[in-house]
Amino acid sequence: MPDLRQLRVFLAVARELNFTRAASALFMTQQAVSKTIGQLERDLGVPLFERSTHDVSLTPAGAELQRGAPAALSMVDAVLERVQRVASGTAGTVEVGVSPALSQGERLALVDALRVNVPSLSVVMHELRPEHVRAALRDRRVELMFARSVLVAPGIDGVALRSTPARLYVPARHRWAQRTDGVHLRELDGERLLVWNEPGTPLTDGLLRLVAAHGATITPVLSRASGLGVSLSDLSESDVVAIASPDATRDPEIVQLEIAEPVSLPVVAMWTRGSRPATVDRVVAHLGDVPGSG
Hints:
Layout: H1 4-16, H2 19-26, H3 30-44, E1 49-51, E2 56-58, H4 60-87, E3 93-98, H5 104-114, E4 122-127, H6 130-138, E5 144-147, E6 156-160, E7 164-165, E8 167-171, E9 192-195, H7 202-213, E10 219-222, H8 228-232, H9 235-238, E11 241-244, E12 254-257, E13 264-265, E14 268-272, H10 278-287
Parallel strand pairs: 3-4, 3-5, 9-10, 9-11
Antiparallel strand pairs: 1-2, 5-14, 6-14, 7-13, 8-11, 8-12
């Protein structure tokens, strides 16, 4: 089968009906042009040009190829352009993973960052817990993972994004529900705190250390629900409180309170080492926190 280079050389010769002028237009030697056309004719099994001492003309087969080749090349060029756009994250569909701990607002901000200047890009989000992240990245089920912390595992790279200010969520019947001042972390002593990952994972351990540093001891309660909003809706039933982003829920049975101390929730992007997606740079440009990391 002829390749694209052969077809482009053929069209140049067919247009010029002169091997020397075609070679000049292609920045090739005349010998290379003649060799390419000869190989193309052998591949097709038909002569494409009638050659004489003074003239070059198309055979019927050559004339037919001249009529069809431009459309074929244009179609291939269009497909290759789309492939390159998909590879650069500017077309097609991007599938990413998100931690259950990321709120709807944080997820929408990530989608907006992925789609900057490419509004037609389709973004599909898959909610993944830490134990599933490495396999999803390795098997290319997702090209990026957004979470609260970079997974410490071989073959994973990551970069910090803009952190999110934290709020305290309590059931409407909680003793703090009517408070208008910020709740100090030391006041959480004895509370049950909803967490999205088991103790031993970076986010959960970070929250436990943060509270402990302010003199409070809390009991972590692992959420079994999928999705941050769904998890928070169970606060009143489980008699727990939660530390989450400001837009985590609109449930009227859940009260959002300020935390007296400045507490921020990290957001990171992860990918398989050695295959940094082009979409990473776009997200970092709009939601970056630590330039040049990762």
